[in-house]
Amino acid sequence: MGIALLGYGTVGSEVLRLMTENSEALEHRIEGPFELKGVAVSDASKPREGVDPELITEDARSLVLRDDVDVVVEVIGGIDYPRELVLSALNAGKSVVTANKALVAAHADELAAAADANNVDLFYEAAVAAAIPVVNMLRRSLAGDQIRRISGIVNGTTNFILDAMDATGADYEAALAEATRLGYAEADPTADVEGHDAASKAAILASMGFYTRVRFSDVSCEGITGVTAEDIEAAKAAGDTIKLLAICEKITGEDGTVSVSARVHPTLVPREHPLASVSGSYNAVFVEAEGAGDLMFYGNGAGGAPTASAVLGDVVGAARNKYLGGHAPKDLTYADLPIADPGDVPTRYHIDLRVHDRVGVLADLARTCASRGISLRTVRQEEGYEVDGHEAARLILVTHTAREHDLADFVADLKAHDDVLAVKSVIRLAE
Ligand code: HSE
Q: How far is the CA of 390 from the centre of ligand 1 (A)?
């Protein structure tokens, strides 16, 4: 069984280390011998520890096509170049294991079709929450159930930042600087803090949970850059914490149409909810299923060794199938549900306002609310604020569930209202 490794960075080097250290056990589990045939890198002249220099090549295109390669492991990252390599490998009859969430979230249709057409496997357990076995859980363990909702903390960087803000009262910039100093955030943290990384994972989770193709471009996405220390403090006062959640759920419209919603946004989570206790850079995925009830999966969602653990689990599966003739569960999309209009998604808003502190303001805002058909769950007022020299009160409105576009219209009304000095923040609440 010949293995080709594409990429030798943080993940690739750990894949090789664990593969070498555990080779005897892996051969038992694969039920046959295996051998690393090559390691593709972008610059072969760089010194690399832990790998036989003879195995290093810059020619990944030729490596994936070699006759003695049966399973290709892609841990390069990016989209276009790995897409070309993965398709080339699948079309040449090799099974592929990838940790690349952006690739799978953007091109799963094409990759799954190539795997099917060539009767080979495409595995990507490491693409969602690294070591946490959520892909296998959805594909295999819950294949007999109906999933209602999946809510995940699937990005460690943003969870670290929000947790630091919650624990220390730091503002976003200070918490990001700390995450960068400790190596949690990358030099360019955009993909993490803007929610794009979590959105790729949401697309994969929703596709598997609802047997419907959900692409990265189908996911509504809002990151954490707008979350302030004041928001965190208001969340605490309400008995909540703020988490960046990837939420995938089935929505039933007023006419009975069932659709799939996948979205990523900062969310107020009650302190007693299991997801609220997920601290630091840990990930967790909370699944609500008809038969199984509520399940939570928790652990390391990033890092070299945790990601390599998931990759090697897939390598064992792919190699074993090649020896014994089995196949991985296919990427089924038979339900083919429509993607929900983001405006139709039911949600609840926590709105933090500054208003003129005078008689009749509250009554007038309540009328604005009623005119949009929005029902308020709680209203909290604090005195002693000032906006542009005006004496102001802080009002925190929490709504009952309404459709996203009605709530957004209500917020637009508030912004235009003469007595509203500022809409400081709008954060959605977990169901
Ligand atoms: N950058 C991601 C995170 C890990 O912070 O969780 C890779 O998806």
A: 43
Is the predicted pLDDT of residue 344 greater than 90, yes or no? yes
The one-letter amino acid at 279:
S
Q: How far is the CA of 323 from the centre of ligand 1 (A)?
A: 33
Class of 2-130+304-324 in CATH? alpha beta
**CATH value of 343-429 in 3.40.50.800, 3.50.50.60, 3.80.30.20, 3.30.70.260:** 3.30.70.260
| Section 396-418 average pLDDT | 95
Cβ contacts of residue 309 below 8 Å, gap of 6+? 18, 130, 131
Q: What is the pLDDT of residues 291-305, one digit of tens each?
A: 999 999 999 998 999
Residue nearest to atom 4 of ligand 1 (CA): 302
For a ligand 1 pocket test, name from 134, 155, 243 the mutation site with the most ligand atoms within 8 angstroms of its C-beta: 155
Beta-carbon-side half-sphere exposure of residue 220 (alpha carbons within 13 Å):
17
Supply the pLDDT for residue 254: 86
Strands (E), 271-375: 282-289, 293-300, 346-356
Instruction: Name the pTM for this structure.
Output: 0.95
C-alpha of residue 128 to centroid of ligand 1, in Å: 9
User: Using a 6 Å CB cutoff, which residues line ligand 1?
Assistant: 101, 155-157, 192, 197, 301-302
40 strand-pairing partners: 6, 57
Q: Which of 30, 202, 245 is nearest to 104 (CA)?
A: 202
Take residue 229 and report the two structure tokens written for it. Answer: 């220390």
> Can you give the residue ranges of every domain in the chain?
2-130+304-324, 138-299, 343-429
Q: How far apart are CA 151 and CA 136, in angstroms?
A: 17
Distance of CA 122 to the CA centre of its chain: 20
**pLDDT interval class at 49 (50, 70, 90):** confident
Which is the closest atom of ligand 1 to the Cα of 101? 8
**Listed residue (197, 203, 331) closest to 260, CA to CA:** 203
**Terminal Cα distance for the chain, rounded:** 48
Instruction: Decide if 219 contacts 262 (C-beta within 8 A).
Output: yes
Task: Pick 138-299's CATH classification: 3.30.360.10, 2.40.50.180, 3.40.50.720, 3.40.50.300.
Answer: 3.30.360.10
Residue with CA at minimum distance from ligand 1 atom 2: 155
Amino acid present at 420: V
Active-site residue set: 201
Residues in the annotated binding site: 6-13, 101, 186
